[in-house]
Structure formats: C-alpha cells, structure tokens
Design brief:
Blueprint: E1 2-4, E2 13-18, H1 25-42, E3 51-56, H2 65-80
Parallel strand pairs: 2-3
Antiparallel strand pairs: 1-3
Length: about 80
C-alpha cells in the first residue's frame, strides 16, 4: 500500500493496481472485487480526505478473502504508526 497525502476533499478514496502478474482478467477482477469488499468496511478508519492505492501481488490470486482482509489490516496498522 502506498499512502498519499490527504486532499481537500472530504471523501476518502481507494484505488487498486492488479497487474497481469496476478493472473488472467478473470482472476484480476476477482481479486479487485475481494479487495474492494474488504476495504469498504475499513474506509471509515482512514483519515478524512485521504487517498490510498492498494497494489495486489501475485499471491493475492490464491488468497482467500479472510487472508486478504488480514493482510489489509496489517498494512493499515503499519500505515497508522
């Protein structure tokens, strides 16, 4: 995850980078959907107006939603420190 400085917008934003290294288009879309679902609940915990970019690595293709959620939570904890 790459943190970006908060903007003047009141709304927090999240973007995803899922490259072809993760898998074919079906796999990449599945990973994006899972990550979007995981981050939907965590968006409120981000500082207001912040932008966040999440880069999926190849192991995300075989990870369960619970594993993705654990990884996102760990990354957000590191980000807050």
């Amino acid at each position: 995850m790459i943190p970006v400085q908060p903007t003047l917008d009141a709304e927090s934003k999240v973007g995803f980078v899922v490259s072809k290294a993760v898998g074919n288009s079906v796999v990449r879309h599945r990973v994006s959907r899972r990550l979007r679902h995981v981050l939907r609940d965590r968006l409120a915990s981000l500082p207001t107006g912040s932008s966040l970019v999440v880069r999926a690595l190849p192991p995300a293709a075989t990870a369960s939603s619970a594993e993705l959620a654990e990884d996102v939570d760990a990354a957000l904890r590191r980000l807050v420190r």
